[in-house]
Amino acid sequence: MNPAEYSRLFELEDHYWWFVARRRLALGLIQKFAPEAKTALDLGCGAGAMLAELANRYDATGLDVSEQSKKLCESRGLRNVVLADGADMPFEDNKFDVVVTLDTIEHIDDDALTVNQILRVLNPGGVVIANVPAFRWLWGPHDIALHHKRRYTKTEFNSLFIQAGFEVELVSYSVFWLFPIVVLRRMLERFSRGEAKVRMPVVGKWFNRALIRLMDLEGRGLVRHGWPWGSSVVIVAKKPA
Fold first, then answer.
1. Contact between residue 12 and residue 19 where contact means Cβ atoms under 8 Å apart
2. Are 218 and 24 in contact, with CB atoms under 8 Å apart?
3. Is residue 1 within 8 Å of 67, Cβ to Cβ?
4. How far apart are alpha carbons 72 and 8 in whole angstroms?
5. 17-33 and 205-224 helices, crossing angle to 10°
6. What distance in Å separates the CA atoms of residue 38 and residue 60, rounded to the nearest whole number?
7. What are the two backbone dihedrals, phi and then psi, of residue 169, each rounded to the nearest 5 degrees?
């Protein structure tokens, strides 16, 4: 990720609808699929908002490759942050009950090795909650600015975990209702000039709250029946007991 994006992430992720909704979905999935969890790893902890939520509930550890990420987490009072690559995690086997990795696997060169590492550090019966950007045809300046390596279909992401030895509990697209707007923005971004950067549309407070509520409703549908398309792929997978 471009260094400037970490600072921008820190400014936005506590309140901006996309980040709030993503965290709320992840926490809800933990409650549903790993209600007895006590230890958690935030793989790709970024500016620390998800790690802070986990630390309020679990014995939580963060991992990121960026020194800037560690400093931002420390500014939140989060000290348990490890600098390492997700494909080479410096943890013993069977350490965590839950691994949360939000919009991270697409950044790592060897995604298969990373998923195998997640399997290794999870306790038997432990759960991983992960999401990644969907569909190669949505590739654009947003992905370049964030140093993405790839985007995934639901089938591709599901296969990545199955091949590693996980039991997949849930896999679905997300950002379903807003998907047409996302597609339109991505198409328009292809005509933009200058340095590639992430563009987060400015929304008013009331609209931001409305979008969070909309995404909460979508999350309930995601758990019940899944969604056939969306700009992200979400997976919940379990390490065999």
1. yes
2. no
3. no
4. 11
5. 30
6. 8
7. -90, -35
Strand partners, 59: 39
pLDDT confidence bin for 12, thresholds 50/70/90: confident
* pLDDT number for residue 144: 86
Ramachandran quadrant class, 138 (left: phi over 0; alpha: psi -120 to 50; beta: rest): alpha
| Cβ neighbours of 31 (radius 10 Å) | 11
Query: Which run of H or E residues covers position 170?
Result: strand 167-174
**Backbone dihedral angles phi then psi of residue 42, each to the nearest 5 degrees:** -100, 100
User: Is beta strand 96-102 parallel, antiparallel or unpaired with respect to 167-174?
Assistant: unpaired
pLDDT tens digit sequence for 96-134: 999 999 999 999 999 999 999 999 999 999 999 999 999
Q: What secondary structure does DSSP assign to 35-57, as a single string?
A: TT--EEEEET-TTSHHHHHHHTT
> Which residues is 135 bridged to in the sheet?
none
pTM, 2 dp: 0.94
Query: Tokens for 47?
Result: 């500016």
Give me the half-sphere count of Cα atoms (radius 13 Å) on the Cβ side of residue 65.
13
Measured in whole angstroms, the distance separating CA 44 from the mean position of its chain's CA atoms is 8
